[in-house]
Amino acid sequence: MKYLSICVINFILLLCTSITLLLFSFYFILTELTFFLEWEVVSLNSMSIVMTFLFDWMSLMFMSFVLFISSLVIYYSKEYMSSDVNINRFIMLVLLFVLSMMMLIISPNLVSILLGWDGLGLVSYCLVIYFNNVKSYNAGMLTALLNRIGDVALLMAIAWMLNYGSWNYIYYLEFMKNDMEMMVIGSLVMLAAMTKSAQIPFSSWLPAAMAAPTPVSALVHSSTLVTAGIYLLIRFNLLLVNTFMSQLLLLLAGLTMFMSGLGANFEFDLKKIIALSTLSQLGLMMMILSMGYEKLAFFHLLTHALFKALLFMCAGAIIHNMNNSQDLRLMGGLSLYMPLTSSCFNVANLALCGMPFLAGFYSKDLILEVVSLSMVNMFIYFLFFFSTGLTVCYSLRLVYYSMTGDLNCSALNVLNDEGWVMLKGMFGLMIMSIIGGSMLSWLIFLTPYTICLPFYLKFMTLFVCIVGGLTGYLMSKISLFFINKSLNNYYLSVFLGSMWFMPYISTYGIINYSLKLGMNVVKNFDQGWSEFMGSQNLYKQLVNYSQFNYIVQNNNLKVYLLIFVLWIMILSLFLIF
Question: Residue 410 has what pLDDT?
């Protein structure tokens, strides 16, 4: 009970802090305030170490959302992780995770950003390998190594910032944006953001990180870790607008969105489908961000955080009740057995699809209408709208498999809604998933957006969603016959379901040649001619020398007399001649 009280205390503290920060962010928006604080940590002779913090409406609002979601996740963990003897350690790791995210949010300095950035990477590794099995070790290593690419890019950006007088990038963005050094820094920051937010070709770690406990997944996929890259690019957005790098990011993010949407339609792992949906939404945020609409990206970031955390918490409750099974095909009729959890799950799914007047609608509909109004080519326009259709498609497929029909697992498995602690956590997020979008749209956009479009373009989003939903329903009905059992479509489904073979490229593709090279080096060098000419040869020579020495020492009197006789003979020869 001592450990469970820690969950409740943390929940209350984080929730109170979240509400306070949200109220402050309201005040900062209305008064257009920004606080830039400098704290002198050490001052020694002429040297001083100064920490800088940036408090504006964006950082305060993001922090309040992170703390709100993490408070509910910790409260949810009280019951979900109750059987874990190390729940104390788990809560501490989650708090470290949140602390690292806070550090990243309020830092206007590249060095202090790196502290939060690396903190997220390190703690996420500890959380992914939390269950201590082979799968989680592999997933943790893939997560850590792919994120190290971004860490190195950030370190190189810090090195390039030495061209200026300080690491406080906020001083230089406006004035130096056309400077060559600043363009290099912007490119490196974009690379770092792409690894952290899992854009192509670094996407494979995101579904692999599902090896972590479900409360961690709810936190990681909503407001921390994967959103760190988006947030960093929102801050550095001035460097990207109207550059070649922004066009490249637009293309890669569009392909990420398309690839993850297709992959989710061929997946049967409940958590992996939701992970791929996160990847799809991250692609959407990156695309609109690369077009220069950072406020829209931030708006979708916050609304997405609410319903995505709720989706994972509902998935966790379902997995808990399904005796730790994540296979979608074993589920069915859950709305009869778990009505409250199913209600939360369906609200989150509808918000993800962009159902009118739920949280996701306000941001997704606005983003797609702005895209219709912008100067983009047909391919990018297709990626935006087709991927949105795919989102509705896999969401309806998910609901079809889990909520309708009959339960396909053991009849002795008892399903119920008895987890009141988990349900309270889910209800808190469900309320925000319903009202959060409208609340944020009133706050962030002080004057409402009015986008005038032709009739067909205005209703394009709704049309795409309806077609996507129908496709998802029909695909679920006929998939058993035409996708899973048909040999012709088998290879296609493997290709699409494995994220275009990206996990294999990230693992076997990278390590295969180096391991083969290592094997050849060991076989031909370590155990080959170097062994024969080196250590083994040396050993043989030493054995021979020691044997000779042994013979000499065993027969030393004989040898001594023999040498004496030989000496006399040589001496006599000299005397004769």
Answer: 66
Q: Which residues pair with 36 in a beta bridge?
A: 54
Q: Is residue 90 part of a domain?
A: no
C-alpha distances in angstroms, 126 versus 89, 93, 131, 193, 198? 11, 8, 10, 21, 19
3-state SS assignment for residue 269 = strand
513 shares a domain with 485 = no
The confidence score (pLDDT) of residue 299 equals 92
Regions of the chain where pLDDT drops below 50 = 1-3, 481, 483-487
Report the pLDDT value the prediction gives residue 308, as an integer from 0 to 100: 92
Residues 241-264: b if buried by 16+ CB within 10 A, e if exposed: eebebbeebbbbbbbbbbbbbbbb
How much is the pTM? Answer: 0.85
Pairwise CA distance, residues 122 & 140, whole Å: 10
Treating both helix axes as pointing N-terminal to C-terminal, what angle do 57-80 and 2-31 enclose, rounded to 10 degrees? 160
Report the pLDDT value the prediction gives residue 152, as an integer from 0 to 100. 92
- Residue 168, helix vs strand vs coil: coil
Distance CA 215, CA 206 (A): 15
The rounded Cα 437 to chain-centroid distance in angstroms is 24
Encode pLDDT of 318-369 as tens digits: 888 888 888 888 888 888 888 898 999 999 999 998 888 888 888 888 898 8
In the chain, the number of structural domains is 2
Are residues 360 and 478 both part of a single domain? yes
Q: What share of the chain is helix, strand, coil (3-state, %, to 5)?
A: 75, 5, 20
Domain that holds residue 548: 509-576
State the DSSP string of 439-464.
HHHHHH-SS-------HHHHTHHHHH
Cα-to-chain-centroid distance, residue 536? 50
Name 25's Cβ contacts closer than 8 Å, sequence gap at least 6.
Answer: 57, 60, 61, 64
Rounded distance between C-alpha atoms, residue 14 and residue 315, angstroms: 23
